[in-house]
């Protein structure tokens, strides 16, 4: 027969061993703590702060030491919801803030403040209202750096005893009321229109100045060109006159040749369509008389001399009659000159009439 007492004793021993093994495992588990990097652990011994655990493997006294929740030692970024703030000119604006802070002392962050995130939020709100309350809307919109600096200084001083360090405070958005936004947009639009009108006027002014300067330079250059052309033209005419004058004096023309040229020029005077009245000068009869006297003897040797009609002296004959008389005289002079040249021994060397 099986001994019941021995069997019960064996079962008891097995259960005891199992309990002891479980106890040992629990003790080992509660004694060993592994702290990850960038975290810190606060250890309390019998309810009192004992030490701060650093990252890595740490040993605790089981059932005596207690590890509080780990504290994140990295820099944290917290964005707070929009807060209504009243400016100096009694306008309500909504401001979003972003705070960058870091826990530098895990013990102070655990025991000096119950909830440091909520404390930082409330402190940021009150400080923001104090700072922005002393500024008008335009200053608040254009002085973000100044506001950020004041907030950071106040928060850093207040949170130093909590084991926190505030590195930066940024205003994410400043939203004025919709009516103010519409007014600001109209003002900005008017300012842009004013600047555009000023720029357009300045451009038009510069354009007109440049155009006037260009016209002035063109007129100056044109006047210089006309001056040079007039000078060159006058020099050319002077040289031509001088050449003609020298040629006339070198050729030594006599009165007969001059009278002949005078008769050749008279018909050209009447070619102008504006000639309504032509006065026959008294020199015409003298020229005809000189030619007749010069070549009369030579023409009688070759044949009968054509009778040259002597125009009657009138005070104002018609232009047609004058032209006809001049043409008749010119023809008579041409015939007399031809006959004279034919009878002259060196007729080929006679000086040709000037055109």
TrEMBL record:
Entry's family note: Belongs to the band 7/mec-2 family.
SMART domains in alphabetical order: PHB
Protein name per its UniProtKB record: Modulator of FtsH protease HflK
Pfam families, per database record: Band_7
Highest taxon of the lineage: Bacteria
Natural source organism: Microbacterium terrae
Keyword Ion transport attached: no
Region (Disordered) location: 295-355
Gene Ontology terms, MF aspect: peptidase activity
Gene name tied to this protein: hflK
InterPro entries on file: Band7/mec-2_domain, Band_7, Band_7/SPFH_dom_sf, Band_7/stomatin-like_CS, Stomatin_HflK_fam
